Amino acid sequence: MKKIIIFLFMLNFMILPLFMVKAYSADIGYLSYIEIIMTTGKLIRDYTEEELQTLRKQSEKPQALGISISIDNKGVPATYISSILVSYENAGTSDIEFSKTIQIETNNKISFSSSASESKTISGEYKKIKGQIAKKVDLDYKQSYEKSVKEKKEMKIKVEANSKMILYLTGDLLVYNGCFSSYVLFVKTVSAPFEFIVLTSQYERLEKATISEDIVI
Description:
Blueprint: H1 2-15, E1 22-23, E2 35-38, H2 49-59, E3 65-90, E4 96-105, E5 110-114, H3 126-136, E6 150-159, E7 163-184, E8 187-210
């Protein structure tokens, strides 16, 4: 992780003119977060095909109508870094100050992903199935939670002479994932992995270091 952040930081300075501030979009989905560290388990994208196949088989419990699931991670706490908002290097001899407007998530945003979204077989039932999965993992899911609610915040930043800084968004979330199988008259229509991410907190963090030092996040 440290190497990734250091690389991103150095990349910014290789492509930016001196004293130029670069801002990044903060709301592009959890799948594009720089890092998510779970206390146990892993995200669906990190599973091997063999592991996914095992989960699919565990979810295959034929029934007249509806879905059956196999849960691998349920409400597992995790921390994340979603994006770098500003990176700045002051190679001069005087301090530099500037203001930055940032946006912070203020609600328990719930995101959902599944390869089943590409299935034509259940395209008309996708939203319904999503709600059924949420209920089975004991997650109070509402469609409106997919829309992010944000709070704007004005920050005054000081970059001392011969120093550099990174301002980034971080926080906590919960991970629910596994596989589900959908049935109609005991016939399986689709079997696929799923994942819910519940963003429980988000806040900004500012890290500084001298130009000769590495910034560690």
